[in-house]
Design goal:
Layout lengths: L4 H4 L3 H11 L18 H14 L3 H13 L4 E8 L2 H18 L9 H16 L7 E8 H4 L2 H17 L8 H7 L8 E2 L5 H12 L7 H19 L21 H14 L4 E6 L9 E8 L4 E5 L19 E4 L8 H4 L15 E3 L8 E6 L8 E8 L4 E11 L4 E7 L6 E4 L6 E2 L4 E6 L2 E6 L23 H8 L5 E5 L8 E5 L9 E4 L8 E5 L17 E4 L3
C-alpha cells in the first residue's frame, strides 16, 4: 500500500504509522535537509521519508534530495494570497469552450475558421467588462521555507510519470532528467509556483506529448493552445499578474513569462526544455529570454519561442547577441558566486549560481588569456561590451585571475565582438587593458587591440556617420534577394507589353538610392518585379530605405 498526499498521509492513521515506523529511522534523512528550512523542516522530512520508507523508491528519493539540496539557491516573488472564484470560473469556462472545439483534432485539419468566429464573439464580450484582480503577496519567498510535502510529491510523481511515458524524455539519463524534466522552476525569482501535475492537468490534453512522434508538432500544439486561449478573452483589464490565469488573456505578455510558462508546461508534459537568455545584444541594450529543447533524433539543442516559433526554425538572430546563459536548477560551482574572493563584488547580471554558459552551441567561442597586473584581491575579471545603462560597459563573461602568472583566462569569448577588459575592486568597474576584438586565423584566436587615444575635452574632430548600428544579417539577406529584380514599364494596364527599364545587379545598400535609366520611352504604368528565384522579395520597406528611379521616360 502507498500512502500519498492529502488522501492518506494527512489522516490520523497515516501520521500514526509514520511516527511508529519511520521516525525512529528518520535521523538518517537529516543530512539531506539544508539548514535554511526554518519552520518548513517537517514538510521536507515527510517528503524524504515518504519516498525512502513508504514508497521505497530510491530514484524518487534521490530526485527529492536533488530538489531540496538546491532549494536554498531559489526564490519566488509573488503568489496568489487569496483565490478568486470568479477568476477560476472564467478560466474554466475558457478552457471548456476551447477544448470542445479542438478535442481530438490534428494539426493538419485544425479548425482555424470556426475558432476565429468563437474567439471574436467571446473577446468582444470579455473586453466589454473588467475581471477582478486576485490578492497577491509580492514578498520574496525562499523555496526551501515555502514548498511543502503535497507540492513536492505531486510534482515529483508527475515528473517520473512523464519521464517514462513521453517519447521525448524516456531516453534521458537520470542526471539529464533531473535538469530537463524534474525542476519545478526554470527562471530564478519568477513567482506563482505550480506543480508539474497542475500544469499537466491543464495542458497535457492539448500538447499530447505522449502520443505525438514529432517534436515540432508537439510544440506547435502548445503554441496553438496558448495563443488561442489568450485570444479567446483578449484584454480583461486586470491590473495585476495572476499566475497561471495570465495564460488565458492578453493582459500581461513578455519574453520572461512566455519562456517560463512554456518551459514549465512542456516539461510537465514530458518535453525536455530549458530557458536561456542573453545578457545583451551586440548593438542594443536589454536582454531576451527564449526556450531550448533537446531533440533526441538529431542530438542537438534547438532554440524557439514557445508561443511564436518552433524548434528548428533557425537561429540566425543569435549572431547579434553576446553570451547566452542557460538557467539550471542545480548550482554551478564554476560561476562567479562560488569563484569570487570573500567580500568581492560581483555584478548582478552574472551573480547567479544557477547559470551555465551555452554560447558555444549557438555561435563560435574562443578561450583567450590577457595580462593582468592590477593590485586587487579579486579572483575575477570580466569582458564587457558597451551599454549606456551600465556606466558605459556591461560585463558579459568572466575569467579567473592567475596572479602567479599575471594573467586572466576567459573560456567563453566571442570572435568579432568589441570587448572592454574590466574588473570590480568595488561596485564600480576599472579597466585593465585596451579594447579589443578577436579574429580566428587558422583555427587560432588572435586578439586585435584598439588603442585608446585621450585627446582631452577640448579636442574636437568631424566625422560622417553613415550607420548607428551594424546591419542585421536578416536585412542583408533581404537586400541580396533583390538582385535580379526589375523596374518595368508598360503602355497597357495588364503589363502584357512590359519593357525592362532597369535590372538590379548588386545588393542595394541601406539608404535612399538613385538609379538612372538609359531606356527612353513613354509608359502608362510602372512596376517593380521581383526575381523568379525570390518572387516575394521586399520592395524597399524597412531598413532598405527606398528607391528613386530617374531618367527620360
Amino acid at each position: 500500500m502507498k500512502y500519498k498526499g492529502n488522501h492518506v498521509l494527512n489522516t490520523t492513521l497515516a501520521n500514526y504509522l509514520l511516527a511508529l515506523f519511520v521516525l525512529p529511522t528518520l535521523l538518517g534523512c537529516v543530512q539531506d535537509i539544508p539548514k535554511q528550512t526554518q519552520g518548513n523542516r517537517w514538510e521536507l522530512y515527510r517528503t524524504l521519508a515518504y519516498y525512502k520508507y513508504i514508497e521505497r523508491d530510491t530514484a524518487k528519493y534521490a530526485a527529492a534530495c536533488f530538489l531540496i539540496e538546491n532549494m536554498p539557491y531559489h526564490h519566488s516573488r509573488a503568489r496568489i494570497y487569496r483565490g478568486n472564484d470568479t477568476l477560476e470560473q472564467w478560466r474554466h469556462e475558457t478552457d471548456s469552450i476551447y477544448y470542445s472545439i479542438v478535442q481530438g483534432v490534428k494539426m493538419d485539419n485544425f479548425p482555424w475558421d470556426s475558432l476565429w468566429q468563437v474567439k471574436k464573439a467571446r473577446r468582444e464580450m470579455i473586453e466589454a467588462d473588467t475581471l477582478p484582480d486576485p490578492i497577491i503577496d509580492y514578498s520574496m519567498l525562499c523555496d526551501i521555507t515555502e514548498l511543502d510535502f503535497d507540492f513536492l510529491t505531486d510534482h515529483i510523481d508527475n515528473a517520473f510519470r512523464v519521464w517514462h511515458e513521453s517519447p521525448f524524455a524516456r531516453n534521458l539519463t537520470f542526471d539529464e532528467f533531473k535538469e530537463y524534466i524534474l525542476p519545478y522552476r526554470c527562471v530564478e525569482g519568477y513567482g506563482f509556483n505550480e506543480t508539474g501535475k497542475a500544469y499537466h492537468d491543464l495542458f497535457a490534453k492539448y500538447v499530447m506529448a505522449d502520443s505525438t512522434a514529432d517534436l515540432r508538432t508537439t510544440v506547435q500544439y502548445y503554441n496553438a493552445a496558448v495563443n488561442n486561449l489568450r485570444d479567446m478573452n483578449g484584454k480583461t483589464h486586470r491590473t495585476r499578474l495572476a499566475g497561471v490565469y495570465d495564460l488565458y488573456s492578453r493582459d500581461f505578455h513578455d519574453c520572461v513569462d512566455v519562456a517560463s510558462y512554456g518551459c514549465n508546461i512542456l516539461r510537465a508534459c514530458g518535453v525536455p526544455v530549458v530557458v536561456e537568455h542573453n545578457i545583451c545584444y551586440r548593438s542594443l541594450s536589454g536582454r531576451h529570454y527564449h526556450c531550448s529543447v533537446y531533440n533526441d533524433s538529431t542530438d542537438t539543442w534547438q532554440t524557439f519561442n514557445p508561443e511564436s516559433s518552433l524548434p528548428g526554425d533557425g537561429d540566425w538572430a543569435f549572431a547579434e547577441t553576446a553570451n547566452v546563459y542557460r538557467s539550471t536548477y542545480a548550482a554551478q560551482k564554476d560561476t562567479p558566486p562560488f569563484l569570487k574572493a570573500e567580500g568581492e563584488y560581483v555584478p548582478s547580471v552574472l551573480n547567479d549560481p544557477c547559470m551555465k554558459d551555452v554560447t558555444a552551441y549557438l555561435a563560435k567561442t574562443a578561450s583567450i588569456s590577457l595580462p593582468f597586473h592590477e593590485s586587487t584581491k579579486c579572483n575575477l575579471a570580466y569582458l564587457a561590451t558597451y551599454s549606456r545603462d551600465w556606466q558605459g560597459a556591461i560585463p558579459v563573461t568572466w575569467g579567473v585571475i592567475d596572479r602567479s602568472r599575471g594573467k586572466v583566462t576567459f573560456n567563453h569569448a566571442m570572435p568579432g565582438l568589441l570587448y572592454f577588459p574590466i574588473c570590480y575592486p568595488d561596485e564600480r568597474y576599472r579597466t585593465f587593458g585596451q579594447p579589443f576584438y578577436i579574429e580566428i586565423e587558422d583555427s587560432v584566436p588572435v586578439i586585435r587591440e584598439i588603442p585608446y587615444i585621450d585627446r582631452g575635452d577640448d579636442s574636437r574632430t568631424s566625422i560622417t556617420l553613415t550607420r548607428k548600428y551594424p546591419r542585421k544579417p536578416n536585412m542583408k539577406r533581404v537586400a541580396e534577394e533583390l538582385i535580379g529584380g526589375r523596374f518595368i514599364g508598360s503602355r497597357k494596364g495588364d503589363f502584357s507589353d512590359a519593357v525592362t527599364l532597369l535590372e538590379i545587379k548588386e545588393a542595394p545598400q541601406p539608404s535612399l538610392l538613385t538609379y538612372p535609366l538609359s531606356h527612353v520611352g513613354r509608359y502608362k504604368s510602372y512596376r517593380f518585379q521581383a526575381s523568379e528565384e525570390h518572387p516575394h522579395a521586399h520592395d524597399g520597406c524597412g531598413e532598405m530605405g527606398g528607391y528613386v528611379v530617374e531618367g527620360r521616360v
